[in-house]
Specification:
By secondary structure, the protein is mostly helical. The chain has helices spanning about 5-30, 35-60, 70-85, 85-90, 100-120, 130-155. The radius of gyration is 16 Å and the shape is globular.
């Protein structure tokens, strides 16, 4: 099972993941009944917009000149995308519209978790002077993960 992507393909995946994240959180916001839930989902959608800007800028500034890391790194990233929820996100199969709150929060938690792994693995492709951008996205995704875990526990009483 060898999933291999070119660095530019991986960056395009990051752009698409952020676009899908915006739609996911905006959908959750539109369905939230509590004001604090609406604010949380709006915050997460806005954060994903900033990440989209980061990856779009990185794509514009680096284009095809991203560092070509070892085949193992590319294989690792491909495996993360192809074997987890991220592949479903990229294919448009994950939509909060078709989920209950608990299920949607669980999906968001899983997406954030896999995004962290994906972006950590993506770092070797990024020129050193641009890595701080990706590191900040990783830190924000970790905060999103923790917020969603807390929100799920608070709103549903279910532990993750």
């Amino acid at each position: 099972m060898a999933f291999r992507f070119a660095p530019s393909e991986i960056l395009n995946m990051a752009v698409e993941l952020e676009r899908k994240g915006i739609a996911f959180y905006e959908d959750l916001k539109s369905r939230a009944t509590r004001e604090d839930g609406k604010r949380m989902f709006q915050f997460l959608a806005d954060e994903e917009r900033r990440h989209l800007e980061t990856f779009t800028r990185l794509l514009e500034e680096t284009g095809e000149t991203l560092i070509d890391a070892s085949g193992e790194v590319s294989q690792y990233l491909g495996s993360i995308v192809e074997t987890g929820v991220l592949s479903k996100v990229l294919r448009g199969e994950v939509s909060a519209e078709n989920m209950g709150l608990s299920e949607a929060l669980s999906a968001g938690i899983q997406v954030e978790k896999e995004s962290i792994l994906f972006y950590q693995g993506f770092l070797p492709f990024v020129p050193r002077e641009k890595q701080a951008w990706v590191e900040e996205v990783i830190a924000e995704e970790k905060r999103h993960f923790l917020r969603l875990v807390g929100l799920k526990e608070e709103l549903t009483g279910e532990a993750v």
